[in-house]
Design brief:
The chain is an alpha/beta fold. The model has no long low-confidence stretch (mean pLDDT about 95). Helix 6 (about 120-135) links the parallel strand 6 and strand 7 (about 140-145). The chain has twelve helices and ten strands. The protein is about 40% helix and about 15% strand. It is globular, with a radius of gyration of 17 Å. The protein has one domain (about 5-195): Aldolase class I (TIM Barrel, Alpha-Beta Barrel), CATH 3.20.20. The longest helix is centred in the middle third of the chain and has 16 residues, at about 120-135.
């Protein structure tokens, strides 16, 4: 691995080997998502607690302060919406020149294994890796599942993660699963970060799956809605951070969440 690639990855993955990525890219297919109608207001209080932002170029330009930011993972796939026929029918939306111009530390792209657009999305990933490796820019593959969140098991997730790694992704974002998540991580030769999926019913539920995933080999999270859609987003971010970077238990994180919430 060359110096530039190592340097960019070190901006994202901290010295302890762990990371807390905050995705705010949901609007690229969902529009003005609840609690993300004004991205700038959502981002500002959460910046101190995350290690990087996962964001589209439009929101990056309009809503992220270039003089006071965290490393950027630039969302570079899209072209579909919630009202379209198939969320899997994505293409690459951002050129390598734009990625460099925006000084991104990494880029992120979705793949849809098992969908009608599997071949297209996997070649999108391969093409992006080919271009980004020339400039030492890490690619994070997102094992997207369209509208079927929560319906995919460890066997599917392991397949998707391994394919993403085989095609050259430097990091893979995937969903946690209750059974055999260690096998998902163990079968992927590059670091795995956990997605949040739909908003959970309780805060403790979030802390429990994040803690479990960390114990089973994930290096961190790329989790948005369960943070900024919570009535107490700063408390959520602080609590998740202690699981990721201080090896706190789910119970310990929940206690911290309640302490911070009650002081606000």
């Amino acid at each position: 691995m060359d110096w530039g690639m190592k340097n960019r990855l070190s901006q994202l993955i901290q010295a302890d080997g762990h990371c807390f990525f905050l995705p705010i890219d949901h609007g690229y297919f969902q529009g003005p998502t609840k609690c993300l109608e004004k991205p700038k207001e959502t981002i500002k209080p959460l910046l101190p607690y995350c290690d990087a932002l996962f964001v589209t170029r439009g929101v990056l330009r309009s809503s992220v302060d270039p003089t006071n930011s965290k490393p950027i993972i630039l969302r570079v796939s899209g072209g579909t919406s919630m009202v379209g026929k198939d969320l899997a029918n994505e293409g690459i939306t951002t050129s390598i020149q734009e990625i460099l111009r925006l000084n991104a530390s990494a880029v992120g792209i979705s793949i849809f294994v098992g969908s009608d657009y599997e071949h297209q999305s996997l070649l999108n990933l391969a093409k992006l890796v080919n271009e980004c490796e020339d400039y030492s820019i890490p690619v994070m593959a997102v094992t997207a599942v369209g509208k079927e969140v929560g319906q995919k098991d460890a066997r599917y997730l392991a397949l998707s993660c391994r394919i993403a790694a085989e095609l050259g992704a430097r990091v893979v974002k995937t969903y946690w699963c209750a059974e055999d998540f260690d096998k998902v991580v163990g079968g992927c030769p590059v670091p795995v970060v956990m997605a949040g999926g739909p908003k959970c019913e309780t805060e403790l539920e979030v802390f429990e799956f994040v803690y479990d995933g960390m114990q089973k080999g994930a290096i961190g999270i790329n989790l948005g809605r369960n943070v900024w859609q919570n009535p107490h987003p700063v408390a959520m971010a602080k609590a998740l951070r202690v699981i990721i970077h201080e090896n706190a238990t789910a119970k310990g994180a929940y206690e911290l969440f309640n302490d911070v919430k009650n002081k606000q």
